[in-house]
Amino acid sequence: MDAWIWIVIAVAVVVLLALIWLSARRSRRLDEQRVEARELRQEAESRTQEADERRAAAEQMAQRAEADRREAELTAQRANELDPDVEVDEEART
Known about the structure:
single chain
């Protein structure tokens, strides 16, 4: 065989090896990105769940605080009704 055929074969092999190497490198990079994306999704899901739990707890505390406030108002109203030194509007009693 002529020398130029060997050169063409060698160049083709080098190009083929370079393409295989680049493809493997790209595939590895994509796999790493998939893993990172999966981890970020898990972290986001965890944070979302924690935030939902905190919001539910805050809503429950707000409801309890409102109930306590209403109870305190009723207690203050009852105290005003019992205290002879406090004039209570008759319309407010009904």
